[in-house]
Structure formats: C-alpha cells, structure tokens
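Throughout our pipeline, every protein is held as a single compact record rather than as scattered files. Nothing more is needed to write down the fold, since each code stands for a local backbone conformation. For reference, a complete record is included directly beneath this paragraph.
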Amino acid sequence: MFNPFLLLPLMVCAYEVLSMILPLRMSLPAKILASLILIAGLTRIFLLHRTPSGFEMYELPHALMVVVTVIFNFIIVTLFLLLMKDFCQLFCRLILRKPFPNYHASLFVFSIALCATLYGTYEGLRLPDVKTHEVAIKNLGREFDGFKIAMIVDIHADSLTDREFVESLVERTNALEPDLILMPGDFVDGTVAARSSDLRPLKDLHSKYGVYGTTGNHEYYYDFYGWQKELPRLGITMLNNEHIIITSGDSQLIIAGVPDQTGNDHDTALAVKDIPGNSPVILMDHRPSEAPENSQHKIDLQLSGHTHGGQMPILYWIVRKFNRGFVRGWYDVNDMKLFVSPGTSQWNGFALRLFDPAEISLLVLKAKP
C-alpha cells in the first residue's frame, strides 16, 4: 500500500530534476544518472518511519549511511536554493520582462548546493570543539567562583554517531578536567540492545562532583524504561523532577533536573521543592521552551538543548518559531539565565550543520558582583 508520507519527497525530487538537472548542458544519460542519484537520496525517507511517540530511523552500515546522508542533505539544501532561483526567474520574466539565464542559474545552484552539502555534512559528523562560556550567578559562594561545568547534550548515538565518536567525545571532555558534567537529554536513537555498546564509553566520563543527566524527547521514542535503567549503569545519575546539593566549604550549589515533556511527568516545582535558603539553582530541562514557566521557580540558570542551534539558515527561523524564540546561546528570561546549547552531535534524520557548529560547552561560573 502506498504511503502518502512519501508523496512530498517524491514531489520535491521531481521539482529538482525539472528545475536544476534538465536545464544543465549534459547528455541525456548523464541527466538520467543525476536524477537516479537524487532518487537514491530518498532512501532516508524509507528508513524513517512514524511511531506513536515520534520518528525512528532504521539503520544501515556506517559507511553506507554517510553516503545516503550526503545525497539527502543535498536534496534539502538544493530545495531552498532552487526556490530562490525560480522566484528570481518569475520576477525577471513577469515583472522586468527580461530573459533569465536559467542554465547559468541552475549550474550556480548545483555548485553552491554541492559545496554547502559537503561542508555542512562534515560539520554535522565531526567531533565538536570546546567552547567556553562564563556566566555570573547571584548568591554564588566564593568556593564555587570559577567552578567548571562541562555540558554535553543531543548526542543521538546511532549508526552515524557510533562508539568511536563517543569515545573521542569522552576523551575531549575529560581533558577539560571539569568539576561537574551535565547531560540534559537526547543521548540516543535506538534501543538498549542496539545502542548500549555505542554509549558505553560514557562510563569513562569523570569529574570531581559526578555526572548528571535528564531525559530528552528521543529517549521516549525508544525503550524509555530500559534507558532509565541503563544510563545509571554508565555512571550517569538521572534527575527526574529532583535535585542534588553540592557542598564546598560553607557554600552550596543546587543542580535540578526535569524529564522531557514527552512523558507528561515534567514538574519543575517538584524538582526544586525544599531547596535550602538562597543557594543558587541550576536546572537541566531538555527543551528551552519551558524557560518562562521555569523562571517562576527562583531558578538562576537553565541549561537546555533540543534545537541543535537551528542547523542552517532559514531552518533557524523555523526552529525559532517552534521554540518560543530560543534557539542557541544566552537569553535573559525574567530573572533567570537560559543557555541553549547547539548540541554536541546531530540527529541522523537531517545530519547537517551549516554555519552552526556543534560544541562541548564549558560553563565557568562566576560570582555576580
């Protein structure tokens, strides 16, 4: 039975053949081959299937997945460029009444799309750099001035982000010698049976005060309860509507966590219940969209991911629309600071980063004057 979900990508592919490939000065066999390569990129659509809780990705061997990913990314990047090209074509012919250089424009789109795709896919798959962010926290005790938090989020372990990637990620994070490691969600895309070996290197993460995490939406798409048991075996203490108190000398720092809203058990009030005195509070919440509500609970800093920084121009504004304006970097939300990480890896549904590099975020706490 035909899946109507496939109709849109097939229409996109047909549009790109008509708008870009046919105007090129190539032989007919070459145009047919180019068209077939585009169609091959739709393999990712066949690999992606709908579940009651979201989308899941069937897997291919790593090398083959990379090839299909490059073609699929090319289709997406080309679509945006072709829409702009054809808008210009209509403007020239209908408004200016002038001929439009369709061949040169199509060749330009093909060249730019190919370069952008190769660069963006490389950025999406490579090991992220470390980026340091200083943040002033009110009521921060002098013992915590200069306290270093390594933030890892949106790993999305799968056949693209495999064990080798995670091993390198752990090595780079440990080299920072952080005081604390926080991981607010989207560890994995797959079941415990399929992906536990890829995440096993996380067991080697180490910091002075431990490793803490919360669930993201993608944990719910697979074996949620299985991962709730497996992640602690990897040395990650999961904070589900709860908090821990870190004490140094006479000072305290509160680390709280809430599960993703997908599970309908997200409760910030419960997570910060009975917090002592005026101790500064850092909250892990996978999605940044809850920041205005969270700011009502005397939280000093919220750490989030989920948005992947928007991934590329144009998509940035779409992601912004669906996340209440929070996409990447720092925001002031009432009296609370919000930091949205661009993510440490990528989701294999669209593994491309164009002018939006991933990062291991190193947050350095400073006492607010």
